Amino acid sequence: MAATYSVTGTLTDAQTVELDEEAPIEAKRVLVTLTPLDENGSASQAEEAREKRSDAPRNPMMEVMERIWAAQEARGYVPPSAEEIDQHIRELRGYGGE
Question: Which long-range contacts link 28-32 to residues 24+ away (Cβ below 8 Å)?
């Protein structure tokens, strides 16, 4: 398996990425995965966790989950709080509202 490199850059249009540093490989076709960075320049928690275990074998289910989490983050999804989930469960079980 070929080595994987992580380099930050800027998406300048729908098809162009300007890298912040020179790519450590020769010019050839590559796979590019885009992870939006927050205003502090850091990746999401899921991406940071993946980078920490980059030497571990890839889990296809986790790859799908990471794509879902990235899409949710990109569209601004906010998951329900524990209190909201508990309230919903109480309502489903017929324990009443407030």
Answer: none
